[in-house]
Amino acid sequence: GPGPGPGTGPILGGARPDDPWYRRINWPEPKYIALIVAGVLILGGGAAYGVKQLTDDNGSSNAPVTSGNTGQTGGGKKPGKRAGTQVNPADIRVSVLNGTTVTGQASKLADQLENKGYQRGTVANASGDQGQRAESVVEYSDGNVAAARAVGRELGITQFEKADPTTQQLAGDAQVIVILGADKAAATG
Known about the structure:
By secondary structure, the chain is an alpha/beta fold. It is 35% helix and 13% strand. The chain has six helices and five strands.
């Protein structure tokens, strides 16, 4: 024969049309689908939590801060305002610790902050285990990141950390502790 005649092809031959796309998918077992969905939810939740931690101005964190993510001193959070605009320097006690070998630098920096309206805290040398610092850092006690950020902006310091117990003990009741490094020592002299 010359080949199949009319009516013998798949469309005309009475064959069923192809199943819909969703029936042609080779779906994994339901337990694997559940694991995939759980994984997506966990990753999404983790991403949402991470974004919230980077952008939230309330709470507390033990991690070094690169973005405003924790509490503030003084009143509550005002809608639409960054925490840095709500900080009153008169409410913030700042200790300055000299992390350099240049004598008197911490006192000069404390004078500058006092002239800007901040309360003067302890002025001393940084603890010996911290050694000579190349870079200045602003440390903060629980709930005082906004205050630390305000002090950091005032001094042009971009490094922020939660104060460790040794530094906090040396700084006394200060909410914010500036550890002066060699980068800012020249600027204060």
